[in-house]
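Example 3.2
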Amino acid sequence: MSEWVTVATRAELPAGGMLAVKFGRYELALYDVGGEVLATDNLCTHAQAYLTDGTLAGGVVECPLHGGRFEVKTGKGLGPPIPCDLKTYRARVHDGEIQLSLPEVFS
């Protein structure tokens, strides 16, 4: 079961930037890619570094530790040293708030 939950305001996420948020057990990364809000887990699947400490360019986030890269829209890892893809979450903006559909939040 998934429910929409508010994790940040739209104003907190800079244009073309990233924002780290924590909600319950979730460590999340929010991205503004061309005005679209996207969301993934914030921890790199390779070395457990926060992706929001890295760089975002053209819809690709690069981990600050070893240069692992992910497409933020799909979570797809773009080669070594990435062992697996990144978990993504459905996102929407509602009344100026960024909301995510997070499984198990209410179950």
